[in-house]
Amino acid sequence: MTLFLSEEKTTEQGTSSRLSKSIGAAAMAPPSPVSESISQQVQQFLTNSLSQRGPPALPYAEDGKGHIRQHLVALTEAFPSLRPRSASFTHNDGRSAHLLQAEGTMPISFRGAVYHLPVAIWLLESYPRRPPAVYLTPTRDMLVKPGHSLVDPSGLVREDTVPYLSSWVFPASNLVDLVRSLSSPFGIDPPLYTRPSHTPSSPTPSPSPSFSSPYSGGGGPARFPPPPSSQAHSSARPTDDPSEVYRRNAISKILGSVHADMAALHRSREAEMEGLFSTQAELRRRQKVLAHGLREMIEEKEGLEQQLQFVLMNSDLLEGWVRENQELCRRCHDGVDLDDVFEPVDGLSRQMTECTAADMAIEDTIYALDKAVQEGTIAFDSYLRTVRTLSREQFFHRATAAKGRATLVHAQVTSMAARVQQYVSH
User: Fold this and answer.
1) Torsion angle of alpha carbons 262, 265, 269, 275, nearest 10°?
2) DSSP 44-88
3) Which is more confident, 388 or 213?
4) pLDDT bucket at 299, cuts 50 / 70 / 90
């Protein structure tokens, strides 16, 4: 394919030399105030656009707006000819949405010369998790190359034919690398050409149209390759050089293989990270279980220590009582009478104790008489007389005990009322 390049007559060596000098100067020189001003304008524009709320808000996810701002700022710094702006985008199904786009020109190197292709990179609603939509925006003096392998007739860059778009991976992929990945294949096979003229023309190109950005108010000429040459207006399609076709296919294959390997590596790393996150969650759960168990063990230890202190205190009390009552214990071992061990507090308590003991003794005696009558040991008449006498005596003992109990309860109530009265008076 023969192309008439719209460039000055310079050799590849001269062009490379000038590019090297320009790059070296740009690397050594500090950023100019104009570039800093443009960067500040871009950042201010993105901050205002992404911070809007309500109906005018852009339809992007909140967790992705930071990546969008970072990608567009980096794109402007790397390619000053591409500037962000907001505009209305119409989907294929007729839906319209107010979205961000990077509009301007992207540089390509074709046969030793640098050209600028007008392009619009639309950030769709699913960006940055999904790749953007890249459109070539030819002017009236430009045409899309028919049958291009990467661009359809409408100017849309096919996502399935560009390895970087087809293997888009969030958050590693970005706009700067996307433009760089498109510059290489577009430099091999430019998708745009100058509209052919019906009048004979010299190799010197016609003036190129200018492309203005939303911030600069005007830009330099957007240079692009001229159309394929035709002889005598022949409609025969020119054939590509086999070596050029082989080189282009090899580069595309290598790029596709590299992007596929990167995507596979990214997926494996994501799977590994998911496994590590699961392990981390399990370790945190086990840490909580261990902390809860340790807390319960500490509480149980404190409870046991309190019980131990209580037991030791009671042991001390019992040992002290034993020391104080050693003589009584010795008497118990020697055969002391149990009735002498416990002493009533007062006379009323002594009387109640004696009446209760007599009542229970009479109850045992009557029970023994019942057994004797059943066995025929004593006569029935003697049994009746004895039981009558014992019952009368038991009645008096029970009455005396009941009266003493009532007196004791009355005394306790009177004492309690006196203490309550004393407390109320204080």
Assistant:
1) 140
2) HHHHHHHT--STTS-S--GGGHHHHHHHHHHHHHH-TTEEEEEEE
3) 388
4) very high
Distance CA 158, CA 107 (A): 19
Q: Which residues contact 66 (CB under 8 A, 6 or more apart)?
A: none
Scanning 79-173, the segments in alpha helix (DSSP H) are 163-166
Total residue count of the chain as it appears in this document: 426
| Entry pTM | 0.44
Scan for tokens 């007559």, then name that residue. Answer: 9
The larger pLDDT score, comparing residue 157 to residue 5, is at: 157
Neighbours of 50 (CB within 10 A): 19
Rg (C-alpha) for the chain, rounded Å, is: 54
CA atoms within 13 A on the CB side of 77: 12
Phi and psi at residue 7, to the nearest 5°: -135, 165
Distance CA(114)–CA(110), nearest Å, equals 6
Question: Which tokens hold the place of 227?
Answer: 């159309």
Q: Is residue 132 within 8 Å of 121, Cβ to Cβ?
A: yes
And the tokens for 264?
């596979």
Residue identified by tokens 């699913």 is 126
- Contact predicate 154/146, CB 8 Å: no
The CA-to-CA distance between both ends of the chain, in Å, stands at 119
The predicted structure's pLDDT at residue 339: 65
- Comparing CA positions, the residue from 212, 182, 192, 82 lying closest to residue 140 is 192
